[in-house]
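Morning, I've got a small favour to ask if you have a moment. I owe you a coffee for this, so here goes:

…
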Amino acid sequence: GEYAECNRLGRAVHTIQANMGWLRRKIVEYKEQKQASLIKAEVRMFSGCEDHQTSADVGNVKTFELPDPAGRSGGACTSAMLRILYKEKQSSGEELSFVDVLKQMRTFLAEKDYTQVPQLASSRPIDLDEKFQLVPKNATGTRRALLIGINYVGIEPGELTGCHNDVKNIKEYIMDVHGFEEENIVVLMDDGIHDPPTKANIMEGYERIAKESEPGDAVFCHFSGHGSQVKDDDWFEEEDGLDETLVPVDFKESGQIHDDDIFDTLVVPMKEGVTLTCFFDCCHSGSVMDLPYTFRADSKENEMVLGSTFGIGGVFSGFFGKKSED
């Protein structure tokens, strides 16, 4: 009767779920094998929060004891990181490890009643006790940077106040402490002075910096603005069915920048021997670069863990293509 039919249906669903679990495990194994060939550069990313979390503006960066060249607010995670590494315009983090920086950021944010949990992601496992270095000792080439700050001026709801200030503070930090030179720093801001952070300009910026960087170079990319999530357009890629995105200033006309776009345009083309460090101070940014290894600031582990989404979409799109748009 109906009861027996329901039981048969339940068993069928269970079998399908079990097979999907097996399939996902096989894909994860495949991605581990292909990892080295897909990502040639040494890539590290600090993100302002986990995928499901939102980030926040700081109403007054002076509460973080930061330089405040514009007299305005800043992103909470950018402000926290600079509070640790560039307190009172002095290099203050020389002896800190990667995990020290991340955990101190989390502690400082929690003291200010911010709930977001910063994350570190990377192309390969990082020794978390290794000293934090934006420019490692073996990076003897050019130091290049792409800094993006979007306040979404005049766009309501959604206008921010601190993202331009983030860029100014970060730029001063990398020039003063890490020796980046003005001629090798590209800034995109919606301030009427710099080139605007449109989708085309951001993607062109990522494409150019990947193309121009050579072995021995140290590359730094910073994004301060809105992040979001949209329906995943690749088969089986994201466990939650959502892509993480960056929101350009012209998102209403041009759409958002998906994590897959960043991976394909910035991460994969970067040459072997380049060290790329990125900082995304925006909502839903935990896996916005689709890097395989992660460490959360509140983790009780002492090593990075392999995620479950890296490369899955690319594998399946090769067999099945993109999902159709709903």
